[in-house]
Specification:
Length: about 475
Amino acid sequence: MVFTRITRQQFEAAGLGNAIEPHLVICQDEMLETADPEEFQKRLWNMYPLAFGNVLSLPQLDRVRWIMFPEVRVPDQAGLFDVESDAGEETDLPDIMRVMDLQQEQLARSLGEGHRVIHGVAGSGKTMILGYRAQQLAQAAVSKPILVLCYNEPLAVKMDAMMAAKGLRDRVHVRNFHKWCRQQLVAFGQPIPSQGPEMFDEMVDNVIRGVERCQIPSGQYTAILIDEGHDFQPEWLKLVVQMVDPTTNSLLVLYDSAQSIYEKTSRQKFSFKSLGIQAQGRTTILRINYRNTRQILELANKVAKDVLTPNAADDDGAPLLQPITCGRDGQVPIVVKLPTLQDEVRKVAELLTDAHAEGHAWGDMAILCRHYELMFACARELRRLRVPYQVRQKSGQYDPLGNTVKIMTMHASKGLEFPVVALPAIGEMPEDNEDAAEEARIFYVAATRATHRLIVTASGERSFGRTLTAAA
């Protein structure tokens, strides 16, 4: 027992020693900075009558934490909400324990109320923290649903499947932002824009105006959790804040400026406070990348080094963070230079087939392309080899549970991860009409989707192709 408000003299004068053994107590005056450190340490030792012969090693402590707190492990995203019993789980642990560091463990287990912002690099476990937080909130007695928002539709589909596996879909609503906007317009009888290039912008504007006119109610959700918040425009964040029930005031925003690959305006300077996000003093930074092997992260950093120069921000801004590897080693990325684009497509299919022969499921693999034409070329080659695949060209075409090779754009892959990832035609990046810095961000996001094996091919001679050739 620790008494923070009474001294040892007051403890004894009150006769509290009759209720609890005096040596099992630390009082206020015994833990001040003026207290003798050795005396304080002695008191701590005296509080534990049982002594063990050997001190636990750090790997043993990690093993205990791994077993006792499964919610703070950093598994592949597909296993975050695994409802299967752990009884048959292998007892052997990976070479490098993918266990959250102490900062993350404390954060995942003890996120308090109010507004919170987490700035975390790619692969730092942000989505795992969000999933744990959503589960924790959903298990409490709540009168309103919990909303999880993200920009990418495939990520929303995957997180929704995770919540469904936990039986939380009725309490945790997972939506990509524009789908949520459309549902708001339908639910409250607001104008729905017609198809066209401005449809999505008009949809958001209609929701904003509906809230301003009180035709769409605010405070609809017990809590709102935003994944990949760097993809949100400032006005979107301002809108979402109003949807949190003021009696709970529970908002969590996950952010990584380095992965902002959509509208450049999403990287404009702003303060969270100006958007109604009151997170001063409740902001956390996660710098360690657990997802990628050291070799994969090094290659991604070589291409994107010019746009990953860290910059600081105050407690109310959005810093740009450079990831630190957790030290997990793996295969060196396969970088292959070939004569033509068609040769690249064939080589990617061949290497994926080899990975399957080694034991990787088709559903563990993804081909991430810069443009649609390349996606279709890869699909034709996989079809020729009778390899099961799924092309994700638009909403509704992504099945995270299907045992198929996923073919999608680099943009659509944000927030996802796969054990084996292939990136063809990198030698064509950036094209003449594309900004090199923007393309470097896109490559960085795509490369960091791979958890174990990264395959990169190039036939062109543009800057990324030269960089990769040098790296290989």
